[in-house]
Design goal:
The protein has 26 helices and no strands. It is mostly helical and 538 residues long.
Length: 538
């Protein structure tokens, strides 16, 4: 047997973690609906561009009120004149619809759609070349890049795997304690890793082996332990990201949009104070609902089914060897970054600048931890994000969200006397349940956060009071497989059905929305996000 053969996983060994690497999971065939979406996406996008760009201009654009425009858009209105300004808004709407259709349908790669969006905004005159191309250098883009460098440091040193296995072996003594352990592991990893897909890749082999130890099998061997193991981890991967400003690029984009509207910053510490207890509470509720209501364990599932199964995890942990000096350095760097992020309101250094320094130290020759070739930066996601940020820049130049919001509320009869709580409930509900039909957190942030900003400005409320609670709902993307990359990835494990995911996920999504509503009257009031007496309950 050659050395390469010895390194290959044994397909018959359900406890071999190498069998559960992302590149070894079977690829599910697309459903009839998914294939139809992919085929129809390009023709629909072309039709939308032609209709809204050249044939039909909505009445609410033709009757826009310049007084409702934000400052940047108003300057363009005065400089260009009404006719040209409306024409550019029509192109902005058309390009936005093209992006939404192609990103949702998946007809072409998402990064290619972003490149089409960027050049379309330039060629139609919505944005200058300097403004459009500069979005790849957006500070949030740099924070994403630095975060991937730091996450690669955790993976390259083995520190993330070591912590996961150690915690699970130390505290995962029974089925219940295993699931509680994964909650803690997800929270800790979320504080340091800003990519939910990267967290899923780290955790997937571990919880798949644990599921096998407790007798769960894929396909016809589905058990409630397996359903709990995968669906609870999918939930916690996303909720953990929502607990931290740096938990995902979509959170950072939302913060940047809000910061631009208020001419200030959304601090890491403010987000942490508001959302950490909220998300931890939802994780615990998800654990209780999974174990007691949706997927209660049979007696035989409460104890390991494979003799010596936990020993295999101990062997994996032992194979890592003694903790290395590189791992210690990685831990010190990350704890330092986390401390600076958490105290940003005190020292005023942005999360991007902090991550920048951490990335430089991690890459520094001789004293650093990783080389550039060891860094895993998904550039296709960077290009996708750049497209979304460029659309956001187009919104700022044209004021399209404000125009649309004004027209919408006028149409449904809401006037300036509309109570704050009506706006709060409508906006948060739309944001929460929009995840059911979207596959991009970044797109949802780019669409609905500007709408919340426009609504707040239109009705004379604080931007923070409406836009930040909407942003807090970004990470509820775990109901259906196409709602997020981790959801698509974990669906390939074949440990649960679409019905299982929908029943459990939709319930948790609704509870997540209700938590934001309750928070609007209680916790968010106390930390200064929503005004006193939002709903008049307490």
């Amino acid at each position: 047997m050659t050395g390469s053969d010895r390194n290959k996983p044994d397909p018959a060994d359900v406890l071999d973690m190498r069998n559960y690497r992302i590149d070894r999971l079977p690829v599910r065939s697309k459903s009839t609906f998914e294939r139809w979406m992919a085929v129809s996406g390009v023709p629909l996008a072309i039709l939308a561009f032609v209709v809204f760009g050249f044939v039909y201009t909505p009445g609410w654009l033709l009757t826009l009120d310049p007084a409702q425009l934000p400052s940047t858009a108003l300057e363009n209105f005065e400089r260009l004149g009404e006719e040209v300004f409306i024409r550019r808004n029509a192109f902005m709407l058309a390009i936005f619809l093209v992006g939404m259709i192609l990103w949702t349908a998946g007809s072409i790669p998402n990064y290619l759609t972003s490149l089409i969006v960027i050049i379309s905004l330039v060629l139609t005159g919505v944005l200058t070349e300097e403004h459009a191309y500069a979005q790849l250098g957006h500070r949030i883009m740099w924070l994403n890049i630095m975060s991937f460098i730091l996450a690669s440091m955790l993976v390259a040193t083995g520190l993330a795997k070591r912590f996961t296995l150690w915690f699970l072996l130390r505290f995962g003594k029974s089925a219940s304690s295993v699931f509680l352990s994964f909650i803690v592991i997800n929270i800790v990893l979320s504080a340091f890793i800003s990519a939910t897909t990267a967290k899923a890749a780290i955790l997937l082999p571990v919880f798949m082996v644990v599921a096998a130890i407790y007798g769960a099998r894929q396909g016809d061997g589905k058990t409630n332990f397996g359903r709990n193991a995968v669906l609870q981890n999918l939930l916690n991967i996303n909720l953990g990201a929502g607990a931290f400003l740096t938990g995902s690029g979509a959170n950072l984009l939302a913060a940047a949009l809000i910061g631009g509207a208020i001419a200030g910053d959304v601090f890491y510490s403010d987000w942490l104070l508001a959302m950490f207890p909220t998300m931890v509470g939802l994780m615990l509720i998800g654990y209780l609902l999974g174990m007691r209501i949706f997927f209660p364990l049979e007696e035989r599932e409460k104890l390991p089914q494979i003799e010596g199964g936990m020993q295999r995890l101990r062997e994996e942990y032992k194979a890592l060897g003694p903790i290395s000096f590189q791992e210690v350095k990685a831990a010190v760097i990350f704890l330092s970054i986390l401390a600076l992020w958490s105290t940003d309101r005190l020292h005023g250094i942005s999360p991007t600048a902090v991550a920048f320094v951490g990335g430089i130290v991690a890459l520094m020759p001789r004293i650093g931890i990783v080389t550039w070739n060891e860094v895993d930066i998904p550039w296709h996601l960077m290009l996708f994000s750049a497209g979304a940020y460029t659309l956001g820049a187009g919104f700022a130049q044209t004021g399209l969200p404000n125009i649309g919001v004004t027209a919408f509320f006028t149409t449904i009869g809401l006037d300036q006397d509309t109570p704050f709580w009506v706006l709060y409930v409508i906006l948060t509900a739309v944001m929460a349940y929009s995840a059911l039909v979207s596959q991009s957190k970044t797109m949802r942030a780019m669409i609905f956060v500007p709408i919340a900003i426009g609504t707040a400005e239109h009705f004379g409320h604080s931007v923070i009071s409406l836009a930040l609670p909407v942003a807090f709902l970004i990470e509820h993307v775990y109901v259906l497989p196409f709602n997020s990359k981790p959801a698509a990835l974990l669906y390939e494990t074949d440990h649960y059905s679409l019905t299982d995911a929908f029943r459990y996920g939709f319930t948790m999504m609704t509870l997540g929305w209700l938590a934001i509503i309750v928070g609007g009257e209680t916790w968010f009031r106390w930390v200064g996000i929503t005004p006193d007496g939002v709903f008049g309950i307490f």
